[in-house]
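User: I'm writing a tutorial on reading structure tokens. Could you give me a worked example: one chain, its sequence, then its tokens, then a sentence or two explaining what the tokens reveal?
Assistant: Sure. Here is the example chain.
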Amino acid sequence: MSQIISFKNADIVNGENVVIYDLNMDINSGDVAYIVGKVGTGKTSIIRTIIAENHLTKGEGTVCGYDLRTITEKEIPFLRRKLGIVFQDFQLLMDRNVSDNLEFVLRATGWKEGFNKKIVEVLEAVGMEHKIHKMPHQLSGGEQQRIAIARALLNDPEAIIADEPTGNLDAETAEGILQLLSKINREKGTAIVMVTHNRSIVEEYPGRVFVCRNESCKELHDDKVIDLSITV
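And here are its predicted structure tokens:
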């Protein structure tokens, strides 16, 4: 079991303000981990630090072998190739079809050939191969999120980082997305790190739970009750 993400006594910032002090977090291959907490408690700032969008200035942090204290601008794209990132609002390019959306990412991450084979492979993994020529506006929200997950799988990531991936979806569609992420975790061993406000997700798809509150983020252990009514 390899370690993918590690923070030790790390201060997490949003802009110039520290929002979480002394974060300690280790995520290994195969883990499912949830980050929960009220709005403004630093959940998304942790995600932005993991993908090196927010700089780490105090404490230790490594992601996929990269030191977040010393990572250079040139290295950041290589770090992000090792992660699959899924957003609440899908972030597809609206002026091109599904295939071209995925090819854009492959070219941006250094691929020179084999585009179609890889695109078909990830679309089959999320059950969307029949939508390969559709434009984003022709897809439902759930279908767009499946395409976003396919995009996240293009570079065979060590972890999928998902920031409220079901936040804009109805309950039935959200369930399908969660089943898909669970399948990817189970079959590929890809770690899942998810920010969520949804208590039922944590109950139905058990994993490790990190609670952000009072400028800290700590893992809940088996002897503690997960009471998200307090944390969200």
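What the tokens reveal: Residues 171-188 form the longest helix (18 residues). The mean pLDDT is 91.
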